[in-house]
Structures
1.
Amino acid sequence: MEVIPLLKLLSEADGITGHEGPVRELLRQTWQPFADEMREGKLGSLIALKQGAGAAPRPKLMLAAHMDEIGLVVTGVEKGFLRVTRVGGTDRRVLLGLEVVVHGQRDLPGIVATRPPHVLPQEERKRTVPWDQIFVDVGLPAGEVEQLVAVGDLISIRRDMVELKNRHVAGKAMDDRACVAAVTLALEQLGNVSHAWDVFAVATVQEEKGLIGATTASYGVAPDLAVALDVTFGKHPGVSEPDAFPLNAGPTIGIGPNFHPGLVNRLKEVAESHEIPYQMEPIPGRSGTDAWAIQVTREGVPTALISIPIRYMHQPVETLVVQDVERAGRLVAAFIAGLEADFLETLAWDRG
Amino acid sequence: MILRELSEAVGVSGDEGDVRTVVLDAIREHADKLHPVDEVQVDTMGNVLAFKRGEGRQRLRVMLDAHMDEIGLMVVGHDSDGFLRVRAVGGIDPRLIPGTLFHVGPDRIPGVIGIKPIHLLTDQESQKVSKIEDLVVDIGAKSKDEADKLAPLGTYAAFATPFRELGPTVSGKAFDDRVGCAVLVELLQGERFRCDLHAAFTVQEEVGLRGARIAAYAIEPDCAFALEGTIADDIPKDKDVSPTTELGKGPAITVMDRSFIADRRLVRLLTDTAEELGIAYQIKQPGIGGTDAGAIHVARGGVPSVTVAVPCRYIHSPVALLSLDDFNNTVRLMRESLSRLTRRTLSRD
Amino acid sequence: MRDLIRKLVESYGPSGVEEQIRGVIRAEVEPLADEIRVDPLGSLVVRKQGSDGGPRIVLDAHMDEIGVMVTYVDEKGFARFTNIGGVRPLNCVGARVAFADGTMGVIGVDEKRDNTGKIPKLEQLYIDVGATSRDDCPVHVGDAAVFVRPFVSQGTRLIAKAMDDRVGCAVLIETLRQLEDTPYDAYFVFSVREETTLAGAQTSAYGIDPDLAIAVDVTTTGDKPESQPMAVALGKGPAVKVQDSGMIAHPKVRDLLVQRAKEAGIPYQLEVLERGTTDAAAMQLVRAGVPSGCLSIPCRYVHTPSEMVDEADVQNSVRLLLEVLRTV
């Protein structure tokens, strides 16, 4: 599978937090060839099972990458303009002048309206526009807008993925579609490889709202082990170590209370033996990812986190290096291939 | 004294191994031979779950919780001169960090945090509190490489405070919640109660009540008591306001804090018992702080819960202070209350 | 329904101390229940078993109200307090509060404070129960009080403290009263502790393990002078929640409510709430997930002692719930 077309497909798909239908359908088709079974969780997460070899009962590994993206929702219609608020952590600093798609009775192209600086007092020009002064303009007469758009209709960012130099790509929703791509690549690679564990690849919903899909899907799957994949902060001017990681130095492996040390060490060993570049990412508390929810499901699940560095998180120009996606996919596949049926026993804290 | 060993053990949230060893040793090797603990296991996050069967019929399942972890720091980077960049693990007050000694890593490498000398600051600058992001730990390393070898990314650092006996009081680090662990160890000794005791020495409370959540799910108790070391702010003030709790006034019972509301029937059990036996007790100032009860009370279908704590001054600092009388009275109040706890206590009339 | 609402709003039941209001509600619903129980944290659960082995549905309203809790009684017998749930200092000054045993207090504010032009902080307020010293003060650390305001009706507007969410409880009770038959296995949950931790709804839903859940709670409106923009208005019908700060309504549940409203000609509005959430946010996370939504009763002045709803919205909420329960 070609990575750049896969990233493009996933990045450009629609799937706002809480309304992931379109991207879920796309993924269902994409994962179909690699899965033995597929189902939908109660809140819409997509759960694909790739069975392990060996006699049942087989231990269960859950992979989690979230398929939802941030967006906007209509909160009111005023003189033909749409009042909006965020769905998930949409960054209002990058909204002004953005092209969007309003999903009303039909899809309507729209623009996030701005007042020109010429007419604004000095102090206002220096501030970020507050939400109640942000409007979306679909360029139609008020009467028509009222017919076509209602409170609660969703608005997605319109952005085609673009290829920059040196295998950098930029687009919307790389958080977390880049990791969905990595999981897809891993599933593809596992097609040729025997593995002992049952693998549940879960494209979770509503991570951006509060880890909603991960919390519930991991209860439903009840895995013995879990690896979450999300994005982390990539280095660029203004964002440097230790808060950010260079692009093209490999995915990061999380280390800290959210992650089981035994699992972290295994991932490091696999990366090293397969010569996959990686970086260690110390996280002293809440990781802000699906891993945080999964670790405390039911009686607890040993969990790890693999992250792909991206620049400009939550902006429609999220930028990454394609190699990092490939490396994350290879790391996951190699990890799964090498997972012994009795690996769980090695994770015990107390040996007697 | 078990509190000494527990206090001096190093166990920042996510790295509780040292404390776990002390606890396991206390309840396995040195347990009461006449009335031993029946089962001990360690779960996926490192919680120690100990079960002591009760002697009654239709036994209540009672969960007793104390957390093993303490606040501390984590190494997140190394600068070119060999200093360690760090971040807080749990809620560390940055005002208390400059000038402190730390133990870094499993080998307890000594480290210090210092700031720009006051001689070199303007009046205005000296009023500012340094953020932890701007502080570094100095272990004496000469280069980035040496720092990385000695304290790689993810290494934990804990306060390096020794335990001291001052007479009626003791001082040391991590009384939140090693004093709770000490109370729990004591309660596991001695005669069985009528009810089943499910003791959970939990991990990662300081980063979000994490261990208690899975422990409560696994245990499925009928009710729960979280055992803590809590704020005593009884130093002189210029206004007549709450000290939160006071040293010497006995165990502090939580009615409500930021994480949960206590079950009034359990509060009544404790206060009735205390009054009947003349054990000093106090009600902790409502609305302050949070404990494992916050996670336990919402496990599965709900668990009536309450928190009982030993008052500790300077609980959030590298060295705290508590009264041994308060400690002993907490053990006594818990023991007596558990003896009086029956299904009737939890019935609704 | 006015008498029912009056009875409910004038009852005492701050978050965590719901015994009294639970007793009042229980008396209303016990004769109507197939099964009734109080669960471990104190929520009241009434089951109305459907004729058909249909899906399990939870309809939820919370019994608890916001209030204040005594944190310290000073030497002179004045009680400092903290908030139980979302209490704004602005609404406290000069308010009257009542404790469980009926003791009344007045909330005063420190006269000597740094900036009398700014809204005081809770720490600068105190409750005066008329005591002369700590020793003769009838209230103690840990005692909880609620705001006192009698129920008033004027035209179609109903005004009282604790409309949030006693009006929701009234809607559930009235729905239960008028319910004849339903294919659903319906659980009416009167939850505790919504205003503080959502613990009641979370644990009740865990115990029931429903296929879907609908919370009935109040929401704010955008129709007051200089309101923050918001699409909901009093008297325009019950609101179907799209999202709030804690959750995004499951499209299935949201569409179900809209569909039934349209089919039965019941006026409705769509609601996006910027700040604030309901029991539905907790219920959706239970076990492997519960598709959840919320039917919101428009309410002005939420979390003040004079919350205002419109009777027509309340009655239409009952109608809408009955339509939902009529067929799967």
Note: Chain B is about 25% helix and 25% strand.
2.
Amino acid sequence: MSTDLSFALELLVSGLLVGVLYAMVALGFVLIYKASDVFNFAQGAMTFFAALALVSVLPRLGWPLALLFVVALMIALAVAVERLALRPLAGRPPLALAMSTLGVTFALGGLAQALWGTEPRRLSLGISAEPIQTAGILINRVDLVAAGAVAVIVAALIWFFQRTKLGLGLRAVADDHEAAMSVGIALRRVWVVAWTLSGLVAIAAGILWGNRIGVGFAVSLIAFKALPVLIIGGIDSIPGAIVGGLIVGATESLAEGFIGPLVGGGVQEIFPYLVALVFLMVRPYGLFGRPVIERV
Amino acid sequence: MLYRECGVYRTSYAQDAALFPLPADRLGTAALVLTAVLLPPVLGTYWLRGILIPFLVFSLAALGLNFLTGYAGLLSLGQSAFMAVGAYAGVILYGRYAVPLPLALLGAGLIAAATGAVAGTPSLRIKGFYLAVATLAAQFLITWTIQHVPWISGGVFATINTPTVRVGGLVLDTALRQYYLALTVVALLTVFGMNLTRSRIGRAWMAIRDRDIAAEIIGVRLLKYKVLAFVVAAFYAGVAGALVVFCWYGSANIEEFDLVNSVRILGMVIIGGMGSVAGSFLGAGFVTLLPILVSVGVHKAGALAAGGAANGLVSSLEDLIFGTMIVLFLVLEPLGLARLWKTIKDYLRLWPFPY
Amino acid sequence: MRKHLRSGSAVAGVAAILALLVASGPAPGASMGGVLTVPQPIYRTGAYAAGGSGFAGGREDYFALLNSRGGLDGLKVQWSECEDAYDTARGVECYERTKKDMVVVWPSSTGITYALVDRSIKDKIPMVTIGYGRSDATDGKTFPWIFPVLGNYWSQASSFIRYIAASVGGEQNLKGKRIALLHLDIPYGREPIPMFQDLSKQFGFEFRNFPLPAPGLEQSAAWVDMARRYRADYIIQWNFGQSCTVPFTAMHQVAFPIEKFMGVWWCGSEEDVRPAADLAKGYVTSNFTGVGRNFPVIQQILATVYKSGKGNIDEARVGTVYYNRGVIEAAVFSEAVHNGIKQFGLPVTGEKVRWGLEHLNFTAARLAELGLTGMIPPVTLTPDDHGGVSSAYFQRWDGQKWVRIPGLWQPYADLVRAQIAKSAAEYRNQKH
């Protein structure tokens, strides 16, 4: 294999594996947007909150109990956010709700650091860091496990939305708030469920990212990387988040490897957005997003 | 009875088209202008440099974004990048090419506006959240370009320092003079902006905001007015960016114009009130002042309660309280502080009578 | 009625805020009457909290030690903090709010440093930026109010080459080696590039930089590029905060040996490597202060301040990298104030402290007297040379703690000074 080709393959593989992790963060946004049309600024802070809570109780409780604790915590958080920050704003412009989640972002970040301190922590999954070598390409074990975990989570989510009553209710609410309420779906409960699901996804994302970069405040900045994923895939589509994540991961990796050296590097942030622009010109609501039909 | 709308008779077209037709508004505005001009000399440099100048700069950036988001209904997360363009353009024009300051400010605005025109073209096809994220392409492309082109960034620090700032023969080296420069620019652009929103352009924007297809059908050219909204927003941001350099930091440093700054400006518009000129100022005041107030309050209380040892905890609580207050204000007034202002006016209209 | 209540409460809220605002105006200065006030803008939350809290803890403990011995030349040191959240606007506001009480400012962030360059001149408050800030501030003629004192980025970059040269068996063996710089794509990360380029010309090694868009949390493409295509012999990271921790997992993915990986001193704290634990074992960084508790001054702090339960930081962090840097900042400050008082008497002013900094003379004997032996190399400043072109320590993470590597690595001072002269001239040109 020529060096350039194997280099490209290696970039592609590592990019795709990172893309899976972006998709994980993007999923959290999608779940909330689907049920409430709210862009949740707090998704990054939730990921940080979940990861920090987990590593803080892990030494005392051990994995099973610690996970249980964090799940309970995220459910409580979902209830609190719905009660305090969303319900009073129901029916207001979506931007006001988005702004409210920005307030939640600050509050959550402050709360997490007040409770558990600001020192970055370690979160180890106990998987060997040594890469697997296949056909001259190095593959990270942790990334493979992460990809597997994401596949399971996505399958579970799809099952939930297609097959359960609650999931169907969520889809109904996403289609039309008022129509859903008129057939007896409790809007408030649906919102709590959506935030809970998004909280659970945040736990998974927090674990995977924490294992990769350590658990510190910067985990909450990962959410920015999910933005191009959302506009490529469509902000209300679960498969869109996955496909978008893979596209973004591969694009930024290949762009940095091949275009970067020509222009002085540091382009991995830009290219996903340029690709997104091209996609949006063709499909203005992302690849899998639901187009809004406009009538006068 | 304090704020009366009755008894005002407009007898000419000029009166009808006046910016402040009500005597109460005229009086209020005059009082505001007088305060802004006369109070600062008494306040001292802390108030000027720590609070008022940042407030004016952010008000201008927020006002620009309000035309785009509040009036034309187009979301943007790129306002910070246009500030960066203005900051570097201003300091390069003034420092490297010795362009007089007023022209350098204008040039900073115009160059930013030109980039805004390019960044705004996708808005014809992309809408809402998708557009907001698409503007991030401009944000990252612009900051990358500024850093990687040595001619712009001035070399390895990617930071350009301003020479002594002069307007005519006057050296702007005191906080008070810097404040008056910022105030003059902001006042001029505010009046311009208020008139703009009442013009054909402003009405076209509002038509687009309310339903762009309907606007198109009644003959509003979408491309022209949408791009124009981006141009105006970027112009205001560019001038604000130049003011950052000339009146506030004294240097153009690319790190100050990041995505977080864009989110902050969007927050000002939403909290202040979309589609309201006054709201931009109220929002800028809220977002720049509240963290400082919370910090001062919390640390004073913390020092009383726990001494110095709990500083880390106290600082974290600061974020917690700031976030909670944003939610609280939105719950109280989801349409922004400008609506609150209107509520106060309604109250004063009747006071002291119950109805 | 409900509407009135609601708007009423909102009005009351606004009024309360205004009242607070009026009440929170700057307090009158108080550096007289046997008290020396030391306000500090500092960050204790967010991505860089480990640094801010460490600095503050070290400074405050050193002042507490002085106070327990009767103060600094008889003045009781009274410190305070202003939270700036590592945000430049907040930092400038903090500075303006507390500058009346300041005789020295520690910006503790690149952004705030740049924003205060002009102001500190006008306010006559010297700015001490040990280990960060503008590398060209060594030139005291161009930057009379800025004092790097120890270690600037160019000096540090050249010490890295000195260190690598030693580990490959001499400068002649540098030829043909490939050295990669992995850096945040912000002014701080780009600052060392021209220095490395000059050095590569002089010694014939190859150099390439690999920028990471801030905050630099996703590095796998850069690592594949550095390790698999460029095939770097050495990689130096120039990051900050959590982007310092990411390489320890990323380098394993491309099977890059940790012995060939080094870090800037802002990637050299316990907080940077602990999240990677044993993956970081063997990692080397530079430093401008000694690490650990094995210094007289730290022992004295533990024996007096912590014995009486008056510590300003979690006791476990005493002797860590950021903490020791805070101690050194406070020690430099105290010595400058001491010099100023000795020369001009009370009251202490920014101008007197500037003179004190310009005549800072930390000889080995003076360092021993202050209990600082081994924490910093001896350093002497002059009005023209504000320090910064100084030798660096190197330290290795053993999985549990930092261990200093014996020796002091000199910078290639001629190259560094040439770069400083060039950059300072450019600055003067910008300022006309």
Note: Confidence is low (pLDDT under 50) at residues 1-8, 21-31 of chain C.
3.
Amino acid sequence: MDEREAIQDLKAGQLRGLAYLVRAHQTEAMRAAALITGDPAAAEDLVQAAFLRFAEKPQAFDSSRSFKPYFMKMVVNDAIKLVQRQKPEFSLDEKNLEDGFDLLDPKPLPEAIIETRQAQEQVRAALAKLPPKQRAVIVLRHYLEFSESEIRDMIGSPLGTIKWRLFSARTRLASLLRANAVETSLDPEPSLANQKDGAKNA
Amino acid sequence: MHKQEIKTVLQSIAQEMIPDRRDLYPALAAQLSQPREHHGLGRARRWAVGLIFAGVLLLALVLTPAGQSFAQSILRFFTPLASKQVLISQPDYPEWVQAPKPDLPAPAPTLAPAAEKTDAVPSGEVKDFDAECGGTTRPPYCSIAQIRALAPFAVKAFTELPNNFEFMDASGNSNWVTLHYGNSVAGESLFLGVHAPGVQAASQIFIGMDAQVESFQIGDAPAEYVAGGYGPASNGSDLEWDGSLDRQQIAWQDGQSTYHLDYVGSELSKTDLVSLIQTMDLSAKSEMPAKAEPAKNQAWALSVSDLETSLGRKLVLPSSLPEHLYFKGGQLSEDCPYAQVFYENKEMFTNGLIISQASTESNCLPPYVPGDGQKAKTEKRVVSSITETQVNGQSAQYVSGGWTYENNGDLTWQDDGWTRALYFTKDGLALELVYWGDPGAIGMADLVRIAESMQ
């Protein structure tokens, strides 16, 4: 059975189609949700609820499209909402960051620190301090490895907004890590990787 | 920041939080097999019932003098209910009806020149919306042009739509019209309600007692905005207002008509919705084409005529069906000449009845054979157990349940009451009825009744 057959099965009322989809995507979806919520149990509930929701209305899914972006969008949006409900809005003034919009990557993270458990904890803590939507774009781009164009299609925001959100998320993440006493390891040279992606307001 | 580095660290964090061994499917399958009160489909039913409840309240206000008087004394569009929870009850189910012939041509619009349309109080002429545009709860639905021809009042509509949205259908009656726009990518809906001039009460939209209503202007028109909606209450059986639900409503006055935009989704903001409202007019541009016919190779895209032409014979279809099932469409198998038609549950899109049929000579649809999971891996039509029954005095097979994959790849039979099937032959045809949906809604006797009505 492949994904297309599984969806066809589910649309025709066969639970085995759902079994295939769940087992193909559950781990990645739960991990993405856990990275955004910081709560594995909540991530599990959320992904389970998303599968149930999909099972309720499989006919709404356009079978000519790929299931993964469709489903991950549901999961990531639900994770964002969960975090937003749990915590007050992050106080970071995003407008100010937008004024300084730049497609250059912020200062890169040092290779040395991410290889240690301490670094994992620091990244985890730093991630938790990001506003939910910034956390989500980091997970979508760097964990699930969706392209910026795919993220745009999933989130429905303009490409420029996605780029800005990624930029500000990475800036904030780097800044939080620096604040956690890793300043000496930071590479002072910014990466130019994203410059080829387009103009500021693409 | 190097992409691979951040990916590596995110992977290690994620793996620590969610180990590989987690498997959600058993819990999901268990939830889906529980009675409707305990899983999502039950909630969908309660939502539907809740909407019907709200509709009944609206009708009470529209139709009764006391209701009209009450409503006219209120200036606000949205009316908070006195109680936080809405009590609902389950309707009797199913109700049987004569199955309509599926391939009726689209209803011709009743002629009413657009130039004569005003937003004056309707003259009292009542056209048969229910026959022509399906009323407010069931197909067939109409295009915007059709509904404008039927409605005795002006119906403005959007001239532009947000990304991924398209016009789906229009329905209504002589007091109000609803235009439905959908975003099938994100699974979102926009409902634009237009109430007849003078039907002030119809503009009363019920909201939770603690809902926040924001008054504002759209151009010179007074408008109100409210976010949230009714969701399942904590007691699991009633509805309760939840301000955080992904639903936004705007009501406003345009001429003598009241308009109501009801958005179920999260992609559009209030500003987006107001911008959308400002595109509305009566022009032909706003008569967006109805949702494109699905390509013939998509699921359930074929009409009965299409199938009959391909097969070179008439289809055998039921003449009696539960009221909640309607003809969705048909499809042909690719490797064997057998046809399937789908009668969808109009209240819950996942539930419905699939009827397959093939000539017995073709052996495309052979009888079920009993067997275990091992046998089911290599042979088709293997089921765990068969109940012998009769259709019109002839032997028939009834099966409840289906195979499910285990983690190790084995197949096990799961008789969760969710899937049931009836197989029989008639006049050289092999026929199979598979109903998928809430346990208890349709049982063996119901399938036999449907089968016996097939001609």
Note: Chain B touches chain A through 62 residues (CB under 8 Å).
